[in-house]
Amino acid sequence: MPVGFVGHGAPTLAIDPGKGGDLARWSKALPTPRAILAISAHWEDAPASAGTTRVQDLMYDFYGFPEELYQIEYPSPGAPDLVRRIGALMGEEVTRHDRALDHGVWVPLLHMAPQADVPVLQLSLPSREGPEALFELGRKLAPLRDEGIFILGSGNVVHNLRRLSWHDPDGAVPPGWASEFDRWVEEVIDQGDFDALVDYRHKSPGLRIAHPTEEHFQPLLVAAGAASVQRDPVGYPVKGFEYGSISRRCVQFG
């Protein structure tokens, strides 16, 4: 299986046929996975822990959005066997939480796996362990690719909610700092320079304005770690911005 990183953007992506269509076209070009392992910016917990392994109500972890968002269901099957397999790869038992899928997972999957018939497991983002540990987590998970598991990081390459432009929902005129950071990510990935990607705190331009907090960037490190084992070709099935400066960039390794 390829490895992916999805720019999940605003929760309204769930009901946006245009932006959702971009994700649907991407997913149609992918092999059908046996299960999806999702790492979202919206669940930070260390060490990496597993979420729900049963069908349950979704987590609507946002406020002030259209009421129809709070009525959406996504009853994907759980993946309890995948929890045990991850534990074997990591060399330790994985802690389980009966935590529902958050919007960083179910919003993009509404378009990428709309039938909700593929088992989904969410793994927490152990952000406080640092960039190197996140990349190494991805490397440990890499064998899952040969077992039909689609590893999907979910965040945004540029994410600064304080600099949103509600007057530019399609990101027609992104500010220079946002374009510069987004372009830097593309360049280092194209070059296979994972060392620079992991060392983004020192190597990237304008980190503190592109990411006042880093959790939306860090799922990309897990995805890159999973992809680094065999250095696959890379593509960007979705590019561009929304609301001025939120990057919609999605990455496919392999």
Automatic annotation (TrEMBL):
Record-linked SUPFAM superfamilies: LigB-like
Short name of one Pfam family: LigB
InterPro entries assigned to the protein according to its UniProt record, in alphabetical order: Extradiol_dOase_DODA, Xdiol_dOase_suB
Required cofactor names: Zn(2+)
Any one GO molecular-function label of the UniProt entry: dioxygenase activity
Domain Extradiol ring-cleavage dioxygenase class III enzyme subunit B: residue ranges: 24-230
Superkingdom in the source lineage: Bacteria
Swiss-Prot/TrEMBL keywords: Dioxygenase, Metal-binding, Oxidoreductase, Zinc
CDD domains: 45_DOPA_Dioxygenase (cd07363)
Family recorded in the similarity comment: Belongs to the DODA-type extradiol aromatic ring-opening dioxygenase family.
Protein name: Dioxygenase
Source species: Lujinxingia sediminis
